[in-house]
Amino acid sequence: MFSKRVQTLATSPTIAIDTKAKAFKRQGVPVINLSVGEPNFQTPENIKKAAIKAIQEGNSFYTDPSGIVELRVAIANKFAKDNGLTYDPSDIIVGAGAKQITYSIFQVLCEKGDEVIIPIPAWNTFVEQVKLTGAKPVLIKLKPPFKLTSEIIKKALTPKTKVLLLNTPSNPTGAIIDFKELQKIADLAVKNNIFVVSDEIYEKLVYTEKHVSIASLNKKIKDFTITINGLSKTYAMTGWRVGFASGPKEIIAKMKALQSQMLGNISAISQKAGVEALNGEQTSVMMMKNAFAKRRISCLKKIAQIKELSVSEPDGAFYLFISIEKLLGKKYPTATAWAEALLEKEKVAVVPGEAFFYPGYIRMSYAASDEDLKEAFIRIKRFIEKSSGDRV
Ligand SMILES: Cc1ncc(COP(=O)(O)O)c(C=O)c1O
Fold it and tell me: How far, in Å, is the centroid of ligand 1 from the Cα of 63?
């Protein structure tokens, strides 16, 4: 019945766990949901007000499929100010979240016979979206502390390599690619005629070093790079669905053609809210980042107190990618089994490493309230203690 393309396609594992946790919550079960990657903050007031005004002013019509000019100008200004990247607003595309943007990029660039290099652990969606094009995802395994280097990429290059996927800061590890390596990676991509798809959606959530966009390093790499970003994480706007990208003119033009057939435009109201997010007051961004920074430190301290767990300190994003290898055995042979039991027994939802092509680990989001995080560690500790006898 189904096309070959979708036969092995499954719901995103993160979404599947989030759905289960939210169902528990609806039933009144006191579940702590550290699975999905979304800030626990409300969208800032100024953005909400802009959306209400947009409704009242009658923004109820189709827009340019690639986004209203006002928003694309705001995005061009953002790229210039934050990333040192000059793009014409006509070379910017707005889509229904960065997720839809990456889908379009892979559809436009990849097909059967192509290879796409994806460092793992990686966001599941990248791999599934590449597979949907018929291209082959080539997964390159990073070891803790999960820092991508040009040497690792070099080993995976073949004449079929078409795209290199970068995600810095990374979901799920929070790792940022070191500046010197980023330069070497840029040279490697240019030398080998490889497109770079650079997902920088966590760029504002960095705690140890500055974020650098690979496309800003020089003109040559800029011509090979599509830079992706969005409003979900920075502005607590996951439900509004605003993502965007810019890159070589011809690629963006093809993405626009695809989007005009696939989606039309994203909500006109979300676009108006997006203009305010980018052009308006930025204090709430700083406030949220500071809260995440504090939680990052307190969670790292809690993990250090549980000897069975280990974690590499993340540079950015709001995740901890934690090794639970010491806890796996007869009773819970995999991270998936362990995470399922944690949800069943202690009602804490985390994502097993298998969802990131990296068994033996779990991803925990610390974009949750301080109280929830505190309680989550009490429950996790209890779960580990209770199941310690069952391990072997
Ligand atoms: C690396 C990465 N890119 C993109 C997204 C999707 O963001 P959006 O809400 O803009 O679709 C996520 C969300 O978890 C992500 O982790």
Answer: 23
Binding-site residues, ligand 1, Cβ < 6 A: 37, 97-99, 123, 167, 171, 199, 201, 230, 232, 238, 243
Pairing of strands 243-246, 225-230: antiparallel
User: CB within 8 A of 76, min separation 6: which ones?
Assistant: 86, 87, 88, 89, 92, 246
Q: What is the mean pLDDT of the chain?
A: 96
Could you give the CA distance from residue 263 to residue 240 in angstroms, rounded to a whole number?
15
CA-CA distance, 339 to 347, in Å (whole number)?
Answer: 10
- Contact status, residue 366 vs residue 319, Cβ threshold 8 Å: yes
Q: Which residues in the chain land under pLDDT 50? A: 392
Domains recognised in the chain with CATH numbers: 4-42+283-386 (3.90.1150.10), 58-279 (3.40.640.10)
Nearest to 65 by CA among 250, 279, 252, 259: 259
Tell me the whole-structure pTM to 2 decimals. 0.96
C-beta atoms surrounding 228 within 10 Å: 24
Ligand 1 pocket mutation, candidates 43, 94, 123, criterion most atoms within 8 A of CB = 123
pLDDT in tens, 10-33: 777 788 788 888 889 899 999 999
